[in-house]
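Figure caption, in words: inputs first, then the predicted bound structure.
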Amino acid sequence: MNEELKELLLLEEIESKISQIEKKLTEIPAQIEKLNQEKENILSKLYNIDREIKNLELTKKEREIDIQTFQEKIKKIESILEKVRTNEEYKMYLREKAQAEEAILELEDEILKIMEDLENLKKEREILAVQVEKEKEEIDKNIKELQEEIPKLEEELKKLKEEEKSLRNRIAPEVLAKYETIKQRVKNKKVIAKVENTTCTGCYTLIPPKVYSQLLKGEQLLTCPNCGRYLHYEPE
Ligand SMILES: [Zn+2]
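Bound structure (zinc ion present):
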């Protein structure tokens, strides 16, 4: 194969590796951000259940205090009842006492219900905590891997760029200039087109017999008469 073509092929390969690495490097921060967001979402499930438990415990405490208040009221009524003189007053205080007792029963029912809810929530939390821990570990592992990839990619990129630079210095300026012109024109596609079945795979037209026979000799650096790409022919 023509030496210049060999170097151009190598240049194209290095450039493609460089752009792949650069793409990866720009994508990593967003990937890490996404994973952190995922972790936040998972952890918030736990925060929510914790908040619910805390609220219920607080309500339970409030109801217990309410019961105490009613119990004190009942005691007070009982001491008043000992001193009451009229029948009417007696009835009124008895009614008040009965109401307080009823309120206590209702509060006790409510507390039982809260305790039941609390028990269920705590069981749920236990299961969730195991699951969250597992998922969090997995995400942290992925984040760490991505973070560790950055310096490796940067190192690789540095080496490739050095390689690219020295390669560019070795290639004849006019050959390189033409390479750049084709590259600008073909955008993200290949600058060097493979020839398969006497066809340029860059533009899919037949290579004229004269160019093709020169190509077979492999001595000259040739371009496609139709699309202008450098041609690369590999004997089967
Ligand atoms: Zn072509």
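The helical segments are 3-83, 87-170, 173-186, 209-217.
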